[in-house]
Amino acid sequence: MKSPAHRTRDIERQAGYLRPEHCAPPPPRTSSDTMWFIRDGCGIVCGVITWLLVFYAEFVVVFVMLLPAKNVAYSLFNGVLFNGLAFLALASHAKAMCTDPGAVPKGNATKEFIESLQLKPGQVVYKCPKCCSIKPDRAHHCSVCKRCIKKMDHHCPWVNNCVGENNQKYFVLFTMYIALISFHALIMVAFHFVLCFEEDWTKCSNFSPPATVILLILLCFEGLLFLIFTAVMFGTQVHSICTDETGIEQLKKEERRWAKKSKWMNMKVVFGHPFSVAWLSPFATPDHGKADVYQYIV
């Protein structure tokens, strides 16, 4: 005779328990659905601010510090390095923002879909009542995206998107490149102040001395703030990837029900198989290789 727990699990896995009649079939995908973009006012504003701050740093670095410099080699080297990193940072931001993070098909908790799963005795599936979808293991519902996201880490307003299974690589690259250009900008500001104190301030910039100082101080404040923020976020994300535990799972202290892999394998699951320079490119879509596909909780 089955225990009450077993009876509950059997009832839970039945199609009737999930009320599939309350779910409409998912709408067919069209060409307009290929572009993923969250229409959230706060997220859009944060995304625009991010780009404007990078452009401000570009302006100060190029027109205040590098172009007036007498050493052409110094200006050329730092200009190429800073602009290259800034381009990769913005490209990573765009990819993180416009890539589907791993959204579960909306409204797929239909009777036909549940029957197609061919559930085994004792197997349990869960339905999200908010988006009427069958939730894979480790998926969570995002109230901003209004979708269940596979392996959701968190929703980041700065990229106006969730950080999930499909775009975590781009988010990690975004934080890394922003931290690098912030550190680079701080070093150049320090050098510029030292050189200008030794020479006439009017020869250090095409702007007046007060305007130059204000622009450099603002850049220094911006660089320091974002260096700390993105460096901490980058370290948190790498730790989360290595331990194979998302931010939400850590916050909720969820019981681990998935297979444990090595730290290196977890890195390859996110950045691609095998290890290559493509790990650093926001234009290379990661090949998950032998990564486990999402299964329903058993």
From TrEMBL:
Where found in the cell? Membrane
Asked if the keyword Transmembrane helix belongs to this entry, the reply reads: yes
> Which spans are transmembrane here?
42-66, 72-91, 170-193, 213-234
Write down the membrane topology. Answer: Multi-pass membrane protein
Q: Does the keyword Membrane apply?
A: yes
Pfam families, alphabetically? DHHC
| CC per GO annotation | membrane
Q: What is its EC number?
A: 2.3.1.225
InterPro entries per record: Palmitoyltrfase_DHHC, PFA4/ZDH16/20/ERF2-like
Q: For this protein, what reaction is catalysed?
A: L-cysteinyl-[protein] + hexadecanoyl-CoA = S-hexadecanoyl-L-cysteinyl-[protein] + CoA
Q: Name one GO molecular function term.
A: protein-cysteine S-palmitoyltransferase activity
The UniProt keyword set, sorted, is: Acyltransferase, Membrane, Transferase, Transmembrane, Transmembrane helix
Domain (Palmitoyltransferase DHHC) ranges: 127-253
PANTHER family registered for this protein in UniProt? PALMITOYLTRANSFERASE ZDHHC16
Record's comment describing the protein's domains: The DHHC domain is required for palmitoyltransferase activity.
UniProt record similarity statement: Belongs to the DHHC palmitoyltransferase family.
This protein is called Palmitoyltransferase
